[in-house]
Each structure stands twice: as structure tokens, then as C-alpha cells.
Amino acid sequence: MVQTLKRQCRVLWRDWLALCVGIVWGMGIFGFVLYQILLVFAEDTGAYVPLGTILAAFTGAIFAATLTITQMGLYFNVEVSMGCIRKHFFLSYTVCVCAASLFAAGMVILFCMAENALNGALHPELPVKLEILPYLLRWSAPAAILLVIATLFGGALILRFGRPARIALLTVWIIVCIGFPQMVNAASDSVLGRLANACIKAVSSVPAGAWGIIGVLFSIAALGSSYLFLRRQQVTM
What we know:
This protein has 237 residues and is an all-alpha fold. The protein contains 7 helices and no strands. Helix 1 packs antiparallel against helix 2. The longest helix has 40 residues, at 2-41. The model has no long low-confidence stretch (mean pLDDT 80).
């Protein structure tokens, strides 16, 4: 198992290093420069928004999810066909991807610190409209782990069920990223508006401690299901 873990890390580290450093810091710097340009041309911004950190976190999460799913399908077929035990593959891949995702979250935190310091030096007169760092310090690690677990489950579904699973996951993605914002922006007296308000009210009524329990239960169920799918999955290449 230890040797499998070492080999898995050697296989994955270049792609994840490119994500953690290239994507996170690249998009962060782009967002920082873009906001400085907006500050020059805008008449009155009123306050500072850490746009670089927002872009770094968002794009990093998207690329991490995509990388986890695509690499899982590719390396499962390659490594199992070369004699790797399915259990060892699942454990080593999960550990490596979780470690890489936590490293990416750490890069977002470091960039947020750097962005806050730079903006404090360049624009000391602007108050911070959105302070993200405390939330990152508290929630970035659990969010990174949950993201990995959810995408591992998605990757296992795609390996097991193929095209129908891809369509189902794409549908969920479209609903979450496109449909729900449209519902929130809809008129409050419309059907979509009432549905969005009901969803927001239901989510906000759940105590903070309960979300931790829900996250743990989801993680256990998703990891167990992912392993069960992979345990009987045949190599398809």
C-alpha cells in the first residue's frame, strides 16, 4: 500500500502543482490586476473587494473537480490493468487528491493574505467591503475535502454507468450554476421566486452544527459508495 501511495503521488503531483500554483495564482493575479484597472476608471468604488481571491478560489475549485474526475477514470484503467489492487488504487488516489486539494486551499489563503497586504499598501483609504480571509481560514479545508469526496463519487459514477452518469451530473451542474441564480433573481411573487425564497429559508433554518453532521454523513456515504462502485468495476480500455 505504501509503495502504491508513493507511485500515485509521483503520477499526480505535476498536474496538481500546475493547478495549485498556475491556476490559483494565475487567476488571482489576473483578478487583482483587473480590479486595480477598475479602480482607476471607476468614479467611486466605495470599498475594496478582493476580486483576485474570489477568482482564485472559484477557478481553483472548478479545475480541482474536473481534474479529480478525469484523472480518476484515466488512472483507474491504467493502474488496475497493470496489476494494482482496486482497494489500493482507491485509497492511494483519495489520499493524494485530498492532500493536493488542501495544498490548493492553502495557496488560496496565501494569495488572499498577499492581496490584502498589497491593497492595504496601494489603497489605504478604501475600506474592505468583503473580508474573505476569516472564512477561508475556517472553512477552506473542510470545503476542499468535501469537494474531493463529491467529485470522487462523481468519477466513480461515470466509471460505473458511463454516458447516463455524465448527462445526470451535467444536468445537476447546470441547475446549480445557472438555474438557481435565475430563480433567486426572479420576481419574489413568481413561482420561481417563491421556490428560491423557500429553499433559502430552509437552508438558513438549519443550525450550523447540523451542517457538520450532514457533511460527515455525506462524506461517509459518498466514499463508501465510490469504493463499492470501483470494487466491481472492470477495466474499459
